[in-house]
UniProtKB/TrEMBL annotation:
This is Olfactory receptor. Belongs to the G-protein coupled receptor 1 family. Pfam families: 7tm_4. Keywords: Cell membrane, G-protein coupled receptor, Membrane, Olfaction, Receptor, Sensory transduction, Transducer, Transmembrane, Transmembrane helix. It comes from Galeopterus variegatus. PANTHER family: OLFACTORY RECEPTOR 51I2, OLFACTORY RECEPTOR 56B1-RELATED.
Amino acid sequence: MGLFNVTQPASFFLTGIPGLENSHFWLAGPLCVMYAMALGGNTVILQAVRVETRLHKPMYYFLSMLSFSDVAMSVATLPTVLRTFCLNARSIAFDACLIQMFLIHSFSMMESGILLAMSFDRYVAICDPLRYATVLTTEVIAGMGLAVMARSFITLFPLPFLIKRLPICRSNILSHSYCLHPDMMKLACADTTINSIYGLFVLVSTFGMDLFFIFFSYILILRSVLTTASRGERLKALNTCISHILAALAFYMPMIGVSTVHRFGKHAPRYIHVLMSNVYLFVPPVLNPLIYSAKTREIRRAIVRMFCHIRM
């Protein structure tokens, strides 16, 4: 199973979906469709926000950041997933696997931070609308974006080194068609307590806190909306939050599921782990552009105008 040195394999072998190895070629078609939808849909939104001056507002700047993180996530997983399912080329170099692991976890954390920033945007827009333009200036939005990126890089920078210090000698076969920290950690034949503690710390201090503050912001938003006299105004205010709520659910529900399975479902069938991880990585980049295109009138109009201009 590969050439091993003292502590590390020369390469890892990726796995598609256990039990469906003979069907991988047929599964490549739906995967390609999902990648095309994720890359195409998010690229269209990025271009629409760029060219449409009416969308040069804080809400749509944050949406652009979300689309960028979705594109980056798709690009990070695409090479190994398509090689595994289309070409049955399952080998990946050890260092390349570390890089992919870092990128996947980083872009995932970036998406969580952007969803938190979007909840702050909705909070200010609904609870303090008179200060919206002065609070969320272009400089503040850019600073929030840089802070999200810096947090991801700084927090996850130790992960590759924590893996590299472990003697991996049980096997070099990973459970997925891409590299994840919990999956690589399980192959070590040494104490992985530090990796487990650090992984849990990262999960709670970033994703957990982001989810808490998103939930808290919506409590404040709901309290503010309920004090509004007009029923129509209440519905209008809540309608501006629907897209963000759906995007947050599409991201956090699979993430909670995959984290729970990894930590407490040790005896669950392997395909459950693989299925939850695939949903977590592949579904949000596909759903986000569909959610915002369907629920946000300004985005729909901008996309229609952009395609009409291209045809002309």
